[in-house]
Amino acid sequence: MFDFAFAQSSAPHGSSPWSALLFQLFFFIFLFAILYFLFIRPEQKARKKHKEFLAKLKKGDRVITSSGIIGTVVEVGEDTVSLKVDANTRITFLKDYIVSYYREKEREKEEEKS
């Protein structure tokens, strides 16, 4: 009664193992392309944007670090940035740990909405 459901047909006489290999090769290329455009490329763009941001840092900019410290740039070195966080407090950070500019007005607007 259900013999037709379990029947297996052999491959057509004209197919070769090369066609299966090519199909798998194209599948993996397609899969890599999707992963590249979903994960790798956006990360590269973000890294490039952050590198440009660090190159534009100058004295007097208000920035925030990855640890949440807010300060004013006092000195910019090749790999380091010195921040003034209080009247008599200066802290030196590696440039990579400066995340973004600190915009106080935008922060106040967000707090008013909450």
Structural account:
The protein is α+β, with helices and mostly antiparallel strands. It folds into two domains: 18-56, no CATH class; 58-113, Roll (SH3 type barrels). 46% of the residues lie in helices and 25% in strands. The protein has helices spanning 3-6, 17-55, 104-113; strands at 62-65, 70-76, 80-86, 89-94, 98-101. Strands 4-3-2-1-5 form a five-stranded antiparallel β-sheet, covered by helices on one side. The chain is elongated. The mean pLDDT is 87.
User: Which percent range fits the helix content?
Assistant: 40-55%
Strand content: 15-25%
Biggest pleated sheet: 5 strands, antiparallel
Q: Walk across the major sheet and give the strand order.
A: 4-3-2-1-5
Number of domains: 2
Q: Give a count of the beta strands, DSSP E runs of length 2 or more.
A: 5
CATH fold descriptor of the largest domain:
SH3 type barrels
How many angstroms separate the termini? 68 Å
* Rg calculated over all Cα atoms: 28 Å
Write down the overall mean pLDDT: 87
Q: Class by helix and strand content?
A: alpha+beta
Write the CATH architecture name of the largest domain.
Answer: Roll
Spell out the helices and strands N to C: HHEEEEEH
Features of the shown structure:
114 residues; SH3 type barrels; 46% helix; 25% strand
